[in-house]
Amino acid sequence: MMSTLHANSTPLMTTTFPSKSVCPPKRTLIRCSATKTPKHYNITLLPGDGIGPEVVSVAKNVLSLVGSRHGIEFGFQEMPVGGAALDLVGVPLPDETLSVAKQSDAILLGAIGGYKWDKNEKHLKPETGLLQLRAGLGVFANLRPATVLPQLVDSSTLKKEVAEGVDLMVVRELTGGIYFGQPRGFSTTEKGEEIGFNTEVYATYEIDRIARVAFETARKRCGKLCSVDKANVLEASMLWRKRVTLMASDYPDVELTHMYVDNAAMQLIRDPKQFDTIVTNNIFGDILSDEASMLTGSIGMLPSACLGESGPGLFEPIHGSAPDIAGQDKANPLATVLSVAMLLRYGLQEEYAAITIESAVLDTLNNGFRTGDIFSSGKKLVGCKEIGEEVMKSVIKLFRNR
């Protein structure tokens, strides 16, 4: 089924993630799989490495509880990926894992990687499994929101007046560009010096499809789209800017601007509220979305969605595997819990259930519970499991107060 985008109906609850005051409270939905009747969805769980199993466990419990309250049943199948798969079967993405993922309605990924596999050859690195997974699923559009919640504005390293009210979305092209371009590899010069080389390459269809997702996303937010490139020096970026500019005529209600990536990196820190929706290529999006995440104070709070033209979407927190705290109940699972909200909204079209999760997270923060990465004086420091339990208590309370 082709991806579609549409506006949402009236929210079930009034407590939702903040929208910019100058914009109508709209959301963007991209359909990834067909709605089933009765409501039963098969979810592939890929816990992965490090803190991945801990945060996925919490998110699964929250998803199951919210589903029960909304008349939705979930079937879960857990599969290995990354370092866990390497240890189990010797490859970072087993064929069976990809097959099960493709047959599901949505995929929830924890985290991959760790010191243990850092010296592996490239084809045996956990990260290679992630790239293979994205390519195998055909998920070309990565949506990464960066919202500074009022409860956590003081956690940002930026001045309050700069961070307060930030609400932006980075739309990153995910399956093209320098990470996948050919030729690539190692060679030697005429003088015998070793060189490594990669190719930044984009075809017209790759640019057009991600640009359309970005324009549709911007249309349902504040109607502002900034395309980030390096068109002053890179031919691939020159084509990028040309194609995005041409598509703008199909969206007269969206204000399109262009910005060089080095300036965009500076502007994200100087004046992040100038941005609403950003669209950019794979490598620039990788860097800028991580930079944007730190505007919020912690990478442990931010979810993401990876979507394609058909088949299931892939949903994951943007943080890494954090092997230094794995197994210590110190991880922040809220990014994974919020990834489940994106899974419901973008992958399954279950908007009310998504809002329930977001409302429960905000309620938990309002009640003062914090993991170590977002802790501040006067708040209650809790671990991974406990904050997950508090989110579930908030879910139950929200339904009790309906």
From TrEMBL:
> Which reaction does this chain catalyze?
(2R,3S)-3-isopropylmalate + NAD(+) = 4-methyl-2-oxopentanoate + CO2 + NADH
Q: GO MF annotations for this entry?
A: 3-isopropylmalate dehydrogenase activity; magnesium ion binding; NAD binding
Cofactor binding mode, per the note?
Binds 1 Mg(2+) or Mn(2+) ion per subunit.
Q: EC top class, in one word?
A: oxidoreductase
PANTHER family per UniProt: 3-ISOPROPYLMALATE DEHYDROGENASE
The job of this chain, per UniProt, is described as: Catalyzes the oxidation of 3-carboxy-2-hydroxy-4-methylpentanoate (3-isopropylmalate) to 3-carboxy-4-methyl-2-oxopentanoate. The product decarboxylates to 4-methyl-2 oxopentanoate.
Q: What is this protein called?
A: 3-isopropylmalate dehydrogenase
> What taxonomic classification does the UniProt entry list for its organism?
Eukaryota, Viridiplantae, Streptophyta, Embryophyta, Tracheophyta
